[in-house]
Specification:
- The protein is mainly alpha-helical.
- The chain has one domain (about 20-220, about 240-435): MFS general substrate transporter like domains (Growth Hormone, Chain: A, Up-down Bundle).
- It is about 75% helix and about 0% strand.
- It is built from 20 helices and no strands.
- α5 packs antiparallel against α7 (about 135-145), α8 (about 155-165) runs antiparallel to α16 and α13 (about 250-285) runs antiparallel to α14.
- The protein is globular and about 60 Å long.
Length: about 450
């Protein structure tokens, strides 16, 4: 792909730009799909680890959510690193650490499962920390995709990236228990390791950073007015990761989006990790059926995120934040007080719809509020927001233990409902801030 360049900015001969928007979206989504599977490694099998190790509800919740801690915290620096290095290097670093952690887990299961698992809880926590690094690929991919696409197309591109990538926990939650039941624990994790290796190799061989980074690498000063002619977006990122983080942190709306994402995406991750335990403890569902029910929630939320992102490029989103929170709140309260399986299932469907749509809207708004530091903003929002996936399951576990009995697993959703209710007034505060600063949200 070639384009004519301004002589005062570029050399006479136009440089060759490798890659394209379509290939980048495909490969970044595939890489995130592989890395994000870490959120589902422990969730579907926590009931089994809980029985083998005689874990309390709080200890089981901590094990289920530990990958989310690493994946959340690392999203901040690695998301910001895109502004400095492009996406390929940080993405591959995170996938490599994930492969190391999964290899260690495979070794532990091969040598100790099931008869010699006593005392392995700290080791499982440590391996979960390594495997969780793959979750941090999300914020890297957001910056990587954003710098390839113009602003008017970023809603659909980021919705597709986040939505299809978010299918990973659902498929993992659904398929991993089935494979484990058919072939055994070691074979199940061995197959997943092979898939992750293949994804990492494909990404490493074929991905290319956005034109702005390719030009920088050749010592050429990019001109934002001409970048679209190279197939990239029109935004010039800051040349340091620190500058991107600082620029994004100075925008108050960034912190509102962090809070909203904490509940929508963090809540999505928390429920993906916690729902297998809920279905098993509340209704006595088998490991297989609990995994299928959780997969239905996860896949629905992911598909809604994809459709919501595409629709946000065409439809008004002015009232979407409040509407999505209302849908989440209604679903969570339904689950929290229901004793009927069908009603509880309907509640999880409502929550999945609300969370999936909210996830799409937050990242549609992010380039609008922080156009010149998308990587830094993606780091803050994706990282601190995703901490909900680590913070919320222990809260749910504490509420479950306090309530006691099977009903306690339903009451565990009430702390999340309370936080959603507290977030609703901030939606109106953000809307007022928009009017005061002439930020147009159609």
């Amino acid at each position: 792909m070639r384009a004519e360049l301004l002589p005062e900015t570029f050399p006479i001969q136009s440089p060759e730009i490798r890659g394209s928007r379509a290939s980048t979206l495909l490969l970044a989504t595939l890489g995130f799909f592989g890395g994000f599977a870490g959120v589902a490694v422990f969730g579907p099998l926590v009931p089994r680890f809980r029985d083998l190790l005689d874990l309390s509800p709080l200890a089981a919740a901590l094990l289920a959510s530990m990958p989310n801690l690493t994946g959340s915290l690392l999203r901040v620096p690695f998301g910001a690193a895109v502004d400095r290095y492009g996406g390929k290097r940080p993405f591959l670093t995170l996938l490599s650490i994930t492969i190391l952690g999964l290899g260690g887990l495979l070794w532990l299961l091969g040598s100790s499962y099931p008869a010699h698992m006593a005392g392995t809880y700290p080791i499982l926590l440590g391996l979960a920390i390594l495997i969780g690094c793959g979750i941090a690929t999300f914020s890297v991919g957001v910056g990587q995709v954003s710098y390839w696409f113009p602003k008017k197309e970023q809603g659909g591109a980021l919705g597709t990236y986040g939505g299809l990538g978010n299918l990973s926990p659902g498929f993992s939650t659904m398929l991993l228990p089935l494979v484990v039941a058919a072939l055994g624990m070691v074979a199940g994790y061995g197959i997943w390791l092979g898939i992750l290796l293949a994804i990492t190799i494909l990404y490493a061989v074929f991905i290319h950073d956005a034109p702005v980074f390719q030009l920088r690498a050749r010592g050429i000063k990019p001109d934002p007015a001409r970048l679209s002619e190279f197939g990239g977006g029109e935004t010039i990122p800051p040349e340091s990761a620190k500058a991107g983080l600082i620029a994004a942190a100075r925008v108050p709306a960034t912190w509102a989006l962090v809070g909203f994402y904490f509940l929508s995406f963090g809540g999505f991750m928390a429920l993906t990790a916690w729902l297998p335990t809920y279905w098993h403890g509340m209704y006595g569902a088998s490991l297989r059926n609990a995994g299928l029910l959780t997969a239905a929630f996860s896949i629905l939320a992911a598909l809604v995120r994809t459709g919501g992102g595409i629709a946000s490029d065409r439809l008004s989103i002015r009232f979407a934040l409040g509407g999505n929170f209302a849908l989440m709140l209604g679903g969570l309260l339904t689950i929290g007080f229901s004793h009927d399986f069908t009603l509880s299932l309907a509640g999880t469907i409502a929550v999945a719809l609300g969370m999936g749509l909210q996830n799409a809207i937050v990242f549609k708004l992010l380039p609008i509020y922080v156009p010149n530091a998308v990587g830094g903003a993606a780091g803050w929002v994706g990282g601190l927001g995703a901490l909900g996936g680590f913070v919320l399951p222990p809260l749910m576990g504490i509420a479950t233990a306090m309530a006691g009995g099977p009903e306690g697993y339903a009451r565990g959703f009430l702390p999340v409902a309370g936080l959603v209710a507290l977030a609703l007034p901030f939606v109106f505060l953000l809307d007022r801030w928009n009017r005061e600063h002439n930020v147009a949200i159609r």
